[in-house]
Amino acid sequence: MHDATPPRLTIRRPDDWHLHLRDGGMLKGVLPDTARHFARAIVMPNLVPPVVTAEQANAYRDRIMAALPEGMTFQPLMTLYLTEETDPDDVARAHAEGIATAVKLYPAGATTNSASGVRDFAKVRPVLEQMAEIGMPLCVHGEVTDPSIDIFDREAVFIDKILKPIRKKTPDLRVVMEHVTTQNAVDYVRDTPKNLAATITTHHLIINRNHILAGGIRPHYYCLPVAKREKHRVALVQAAVSGDRRFFLGTDSAPHNDPAKLQPCGCAGIYTAPVTMACLAEVFETADKLRQLEAFTSLNGPAFYGLPPNEETITLVKDGPFDRPDRIETEDGPVTIFDPGFPMHWRVDA
Ligand code: NCD
Ligand code: ZN
Questions:
Q1: Whose CA is nearest to atom 11 of ligand 1?
Q2: Angstrom distance (rounded) from CA 158 to CA 211
Q3: I need a labelling partner for 63 at 20 to 30 A (CA). Which of 20, 110, 156, 160 fits?
Q4: What is the pLDDT of residues 268-318, one digit of tens each?
């Protein structure tokens, strides 16, 4: 008789360094999927209206904690939405009092609920200088919004036209390039020894633009920044599995209900929270780098943010493949769960 014990992998409990939890009925519906596997998450502030002030961040954190089911533990790390009116002193106070972990920069119009973002980067100089001084990280949605720039080039152009000048003027500013999607971004981060890191999503490690567009249009694979061609996906996988401390997981799990996704002008965002750990185990195993999974999900992020890694652990078990639920039901309607397009063999042991 052969040994039937399935492979197991125990790692420190992961964190999610870029997450959309929304509010109200949607928050209630999606929060357990994150809290089940992740200890902490950097919570995006792109609500309507956005989370701009320390006071708003405090109130949002209270709503998140009130939505957390009995018996679950989870620590939301709050962010402030940077506007041209943001007060540098409010930001400094939010940081000093532990209310906000980071500030989020959306170029105005770049993505979902970014209308209050930044148009004129000169106007946010005082805030960026204040942040550089106090060591508060800036999370950047790195895409230009110029309609004349092709959507597949917007990240690469942002790096050259916006990010490099900001980093040159404020080299002490700690920057996280969020949800990077290109070889260009990976190279830029690799070439920068200090004060720059990048999050990589679950879905950008798995899909390229063919998955969205070839053989029919698939709205559930549409997100921003949009997935690029295969060579970029391969560069992202190499960065993620490399163990390089500058790359860590930010799922960008971004729930929209199905009616909002499935319309003539559907919303950008992919809901990956429930399947992220199973997907990542598959991706890392395929790359023969399972031993680097913990660095990507549980060690590199805390190191950049100056926080201790989690003491608790989770165990992944390889006894699949599994039937994956297609969607979750929320008070805000059904939300389709990301389909990686391959069988998932690993699961998080309850
Ligand atoms: C995000 C959302 O829905 O809030 N959408 C997305 O496609 N990633 C916003 C964002 O992170 O760009
Ligand atoms: Zn996002």
A1: 252
A2: 25
A3: 110
A4: 999 999 999 999 999 999 999 999 999 999 999 999 999 999 999 999 999
